[in-house]
Design goal:
Layout: H1 2-29, E1 36-40, E2 46-55, E3 63-67, H2 78-90, E4 94-99, H3 105-110, H4 123-142, E5 149-154, H5 156-167, E6 175-178, H6 191-198, H7 206-211, E7 225-230, H8 239-250, E8 255-260, H9 281-291
Parallel strand pairs: 3-4, 3-5, 5-6, 6-7, 7-8
Antiparallel strand pairs: 1-2, 2-4
């Protein structure tokens, strides 16, 4: 009789353990690929203007927040967003695609922010910080090590992640800036990104432009940086990356610059866009993470 009770207890325990394991596994995968709002209003209702989309994996405790490009006016949230999330997930890295607030095509075409505030700095920066808080709040639940949480940004998103590293209250462990916008003052500035970030009256905000020029404000304790740029980039002048490289070198910040001759702009993680040379950045990034002991 005692043996029967012992056997039943074991079966019950194993059954409950199986349920717990299944629930824990479900926590890591149930919402993968689904958008979650970053902000809530005063009544507790969520505001859908900024979202985060997780792509979970149990393979490691490393995570990367992804910020698509789009000149601070719109977002390439597929080629530089969800596609990147899936690629990192397949590499055994937790990924989170952040859709931050941007003014949109209407504001770009009609210059509507001459009349209304619209979306502009610091909205994008605030969304980036809130995304870091979201991941921090869910880190234990999903087995993420906050000392291994980095950020990756493309084009204008590159400027945004560099801003998080330079000015953020919550700062990433590492930064990946892919063909990034860097300066807001130099002659090689990407003017559309500057207008998208600051607004149509940017000329009256020269002090703000200076403060948002990353090459002038790299902190002494900036996290390690991985950079990608191409000499034939016709959208964002490669001199942006050259200035960033000089600033990081001058401040003795560990960084790696994957400098390509060809590839252009906007290739993301595509196996068709860019060039054979530029598409190698993905392998270099994974090797860099391992070398820096983030993976």
């Amino acid at each position: 009789m005692q043996n029967t009770r012992f056997l039943l207890s074991c079966l019950l325990f194993c059954g409950l353990s199986g349920v717990m394991i299944a629930q824990n596994t479900e926590l890591r995968t149930l919402h993968s690929g689904e958008q979650f709002p970053l902000w809530g209003d005063s009544t507790g209702h969520y505001v859908q203007e900024a979202t985060i989309t997780p792509f979970f994996t149990a393979a490691s405790s490393t995570a990367v927040l992804i910020f698509p490009g789009g000149s601070y006016f719109w977002l390439d949230d597929c080629g530089e967003g969800d596609d990147v999330g899936r690629w990192l997930q397949n590499q055994g890295i937790n990924a989170f695609v952040v859709r931050y607030r941007v003014p949109g095509w209407w504001a770009w075409f009609y210059h509507s922010r001459l009349l209304i505030r619209g979306k502009r700095h610091p909205d994008m920066f605030d969304d980036g910080q809130q995304a870091m808080r979201w991941v921090r709040n869910h880190a234990e639940q999903y087995g993420i090590d906050m000392n291994r949480v980095g950020v990756m940004g493309f084009s204008a998103g590159g400027h945004l992640v560099l801003s998080q590293a330079s000015y953020g209250e919550i700062r990433p462990a590492f930064v990946a800036a892919i063909y990034p916008v860097v300066t807001m003052t130099d002659k090689c500035v990407h003017e559309r990104s500057r207008r998208g970030l600051i607004g149509e009256r940017w000329k009256k905000s020269l002090e703000l432009c200076d403060s948002l020029s990353i090459e002038r404000h790299v902190p002494a304790d900036c996290p390690p940086v991985f950079m990608v740029s191409c000499d034939d980039d016709a959208i964002v002048d490669c001199r942006n990356s050259q200035m960033l490289d000089s600033a990081l070198t001058g401040n003795h910040i560990p960084h790696y610059w994957f400098h390509c001759k060809t590839g252009g702009h906007g290739f993301g993680v595509s196996e068709k866009k860019g060039s054979d040379e530029s598409r190698q950045w993905k392998q270099h990034f994974i090797l860099w993470l391992k070398k820096m002991e983030f993976l």
